[in-house]
Amino acid sequence: MPQTRTVRARLPRDSAATSEGASANRRSAAPRRSTKVSDYVALDIVRDIVARHLQHGDKLPPEPEMLRQYQVSRSTLREALRVLEVQGLIRSRPGPGGGTVVGKVEVSSLGRTLTLHMHLVGATYDELLSGYVLAESMTAELAAQNPDRALVKRLMQPYVEEGRATLHRHAVEEGFEFHGTVALLANNRVLAFILQTPGAIVNDHIVNSLNRKLLEDHIVHDHARIAAAIISGNTKKSYLTMHEHVERLVEHFRAYWPQKVGEKIEWR
Asked: What is this structure's pTM?
């Protein structure tokens, strides 16, 4: 794969340890959370993916080329790749023509990592559901403040069209799309990513276990009201209509799953 970045200066290869130590020193601008060389290599790989504008499914260089580029041992490179694979940022494609490819940036990947931390601190599903209501409400409020009103109208208008309830696909599936679109309109990628995380965990742990048809009566109607409030730029109404919508879903979750609500969040 052609390189588009400046190749780092090569050092004498007296030993893998010497090379890796020098590589870590050259990456002195990297975060100091850990002294493990594999962490620095993982960061460099991500930087290269961004610098080369690689997209989901694009192939990374083969292992021999990556070993030369990052000047580390095979075990260190593989450890760095495992770190990224756990985060969903890359994945291995087996078989002929396979290799390592760029993964997809998904809120669910962050959510899965957070559930492990939440379990360790003893957080419960009841706390998760309360956080879900607040996070989605704040996201709608931010979307209503978006200064690009033309973009807001273009993305929200389809949800207020008459007849959408009968013409559009499965309402719960639409819900995933709708909440993602509202987060996009929040106009702050950091906040949008963080605020979507409770919802991603709820979807994975709870929504996928429910009888979804019980939720459909309200979803499309609620989305139309929220979308109209966001289009109007009414921040208070956007917050309150989203809060009411998600609170209704949460009440349904609690009724469906009463024995689980007080339990610790599981890592999945």
From this structure: 0.78
CATH of 16-102, one of 3.40.50.300, 1.10.1610.10, 3.40.50.1220, 1.10.10.10: 1.10.10.10
Q: What CA–CA distance (Å, rounded) separates 259 from 244?
A: 24
CATH tag for 108-261 (out of 1.20.120.530, 3.40.50.300, 3.10.450.50, 1.10.3720.10): 1.20.120.530
Q: Measured between alpha carbons, how far is 264 from 119 in angstroms, rounded to an integer?
A: 6
Query: Which pLDDT tens digit goes with each residue over 137-157?
Result: 999 999 999 999 999 999 999
